C-alpha cells in the first residue's frame, strides 16, 4: 500500500480506507467532503469510511477519487467494499487474492479464474493456491494484482482482494516517515492505476 500516491483498500471488518503516500493539494477536503473521516493510525493519516452498502461506498470513494485524479494518476483501488454491481447475486467471488504480510496467494474456484491467474504469471503451489512464478518486489506484486484484477472484472469474473488488515487500527505504519494529507509537492508521473 506504500507504492502508489493514493491507495484504496478494505479492512476485513468492511471499512474502506484511503492512504496518501505523498501530499496532494486539497486531498483532506476532497476525502472528508466525500464522507471519509481523517484519523491517525500508526503514525499515518488514514481516511476511513465506516461499513456501508457497496453501492454507497462505491459512490463516496468515486467522488473522492475523481477529485484526486486532478492531482495524480498514480492511484490503486483494491478495496472489495466499493465493488458494486447491480446484477451481482451476492455470491462468493471466483477469484480471491490474499496478502499475508509480504506474501501473496491467490485462489480460484472456476476454470476461467484459474486460466486468468496463469495468464498473469501465477502458478499452482500444490496446496490449492496460486503464487507468482518468480520472486517479485512490492511494486511488481502490486502491479501483478492490479492487472489480474482489472482483467477479471473486464471478463465478468468476481474478485476479492484481502489485504490481511482485520480492522483500521491494524493499518501498518509507513516504512519511511509518516504519510501526510497536507497539500504540497508536484504531481508525480502517471503510473499503474485502477479506479472504482
Written account of the structure:
- This protein has helices at residues 27-33, 54-68, 111-119, 138-154; strands at 6-10, 16-20, 37-41, 44-49, 75-77, 95-100, 103-108, 122-124, 130-132, 159-162.
- With 196 residues, the chain is an alpha+beta fold.
- The strands form three sheets. A five-stranded mixed β-sheet has the order 3-4-2-1-5. Strands 7-6-10 form a three-stranded mixed β-sheet.
- Helix 1 packs antiparallel against helix 2 (54-68).
- It is globular.
- 36% of the residues are buried.
Strand order of the largest sheet: 3-4-2-1-5
The first-to-last residue Cα distance is 16 Å
Strand residues, percent: 15-25%
Number of strands: 10
What's the rounded overall pLDDT mean? 83
Unreliable sequence segments: 177-193
Number of H- or I-type helical stretches: 4
Classification by helices and strands = alpha+beta
Query: For the CA atoms, what is the radius of gyration?
Result: 16 Å
How does the major sheet shape up? 5 strands, mixed
* SSE order, one letter for each helix or strand: EEHEEHEEEHEEHE
Percent helix: 10-25%
Shape: globular
Task: Put the structure in a nutshell.
It is built from four helices and ten strands, in the order ββαββαβββαββαβ. The protein is an alpha+beta fold and 196 residues long.
Amino acid at each position: 500500500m506504500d507504492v502508489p500516491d493514493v491507495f484504496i483498500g478494505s479492512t476485513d471488518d468492511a471499512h474502506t480506507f484511503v492512504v496518501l503516500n505523498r501530499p496532494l493539494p486539497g486531498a483532506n477536503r476532497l476525502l472528508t467532503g466525500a464522507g471519509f473521516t481523517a484519523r491517525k493510525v500508526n503514525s499515518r493519516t488514514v481516511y476511513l469510511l465506516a461499513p456501508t452498502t457497496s453501492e454507497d461506498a462505491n459512490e463516496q470513494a468515486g467522488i473522492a477519487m475523481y477529485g484526486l485524479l486532478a492531482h495524480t494518476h498514480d492511484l490503486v483501488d483494491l478495496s472489495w467494499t466499493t465493488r458494486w454491481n447491480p446484477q451481482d447475486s451476492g455470491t462468493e467471488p471466483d477469484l480471491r487474492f490474499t496478502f499475508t504480510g509480504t506474501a501473496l496467494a491467490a485462489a480460484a474456484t472456476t476454470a476461467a479464474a484459474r486460466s486468468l491467474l496463469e495468464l498473469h504469471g501465477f502458478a499452482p503451489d500444490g496446496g490449492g493456491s496460486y503464487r507468482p512464478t518468480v520472486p517479485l518486489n512490492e511494486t511488481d506484486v502490486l502491479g501483478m494484482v492490479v492487472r489480474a484484477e482489472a482483467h477479471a472484472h473486464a471478463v465478468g469474473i468476481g474478485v476479492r482482494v484481502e489485504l490481511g488488515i482485520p480492522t483500521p487500527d491494524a493499518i501498518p505504519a509507513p516504512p519511511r516517515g509518516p504519510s501526510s494529507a497536507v497539500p504540497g509537492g508536484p504531481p508525480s508521473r502517471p503510473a499503474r492505476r485502477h479506479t472504482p
